[in-house]
Design a protein that fits this description.
single chain; about 290 residues; mainly alpha
Length: about 290
């Protein structure tokens, strides 16, 4: 029965994830434009861009690049399906990590100097945020009593009440995961940073379109990770979680438009410091509660 529920969750996420993610990306562009004193594109502009990419001829430098991206996309869908079907949070994080590794390998496979630099930076980003993600999972387990996300609906109080330090640490590395300034050192989804897009420099056509859709799905999944801290047995908590998710997404857009890119050394040191202080301290306190 659990497998059936997970499969249904994967199918549902494969349909709803790109739709919601596309709307979030469009909202991102509009809000960013307004912050910069511009009108901005229409809400569905990300969809128009991706549709145009899929209509182009596949001009990948090698045949393996698209395969790596395809499997990275599949693992992202599985991660989202596992999470939103109430499955294991730790498994969802592992699958996202595997997807990130395949994305890095795809960039390395092109043998372009720009792509290789982007892949190296992407690897550094993964080294920066991964410790905090796993400490977040541990803190969530200690606060709720289980790794299964469905368990939040049986809690007497939301996990944020006892795992708020881990949540703050997760918000810090979320900026890295969403590829927002000041931590978008491997690539940026906006044109305000650089012409050469690092890790996706040699990707075009359907391959690049798949990367964009994968990014949409990742954004939806990460917002789901935010929401799980604010849901408990009260049905109205879902409304609270949605409000918090929108507020967090707006905060990330604001940060993206108000901070310049930092060096990778500062990103790595700050992310590990936050993981040690916020994640480590929260886990230590929960161990003695």
């Amino acid at each position: 029965m659990t497998i059936i529920v997970t499969v249904i969750g994967i199918i549902a996420f494969a349909i709803a994830g790109p739709i919601i993610g596309c709307l979030l990306a469009g909202l991102d562009r509009i809000i960013s434009a307004r912050m910069q004193g511009r009108v901005g594109p229409p809400l569905l502009q990300p969809y128009y861009d991706v549709r145009k990419l899929f209509s182009k001829e596949n001009a990948s430098v090698n045949t393996s690049e698209h395969a790596y991206i395809l499997f990275a996309f599949i693992f992202t869908l599985v991660a989202g399906g596992v999470f939103f079907s109430g499955g294991n949070l730790l498994l969802s994080v592992f699958l996202v990590t595997l997807s990130s590794l395949l994305f890095i390998v795809a960039a390395y496979s092109s043998r372009s100097p720009y792509s290789e630099v982007g892949a190296a930076r992407e690897t550094l980003q993964a080294m920066a945020y991964e410790p905090m993600l796993y400490l977040m999972c541990v803190a969530f387990f200690m606060a709720s009593g289980w790794f299964d996300v469905a368990g939040v609906f049986f809690l007497d109080a939301p996990a944020i009440t006892t795992a708020w330090l881990a949540f703050l640490g997760f918000l810090f590395v979320l900026t890295i995961k969403l590829r927002k300034s000041p931590f978008d050192i491997s690539m940026s989804h906006h044109a305000h940073q650089e012409i050469v897009r690092g890790v996706t420099t040699e990707m075009s056509g359907p391959t690049l379109g798949l990367v964009e859709v994968m990014h949409w799905c990742e954004n939806v999944l990460f917002m789901g990770w935010v929401a799980m801290f604010f849901i408990w047995s009260n049905p109205l908590s879902i409304v609270l979680a949605v409000v918090v998710v929108l507020a967090v997404y707006f905060l990330e857009i604001w940060i993206d438009n108000n901070f310049a890119r930092v060096k990778w050394q500062l990103m790595l040191k700050s992310a590990w410091a936050v993981a040690l202080v916020a994640g480590g301290l929260n886990v230590a306190v929960l161990a003695y509660l």
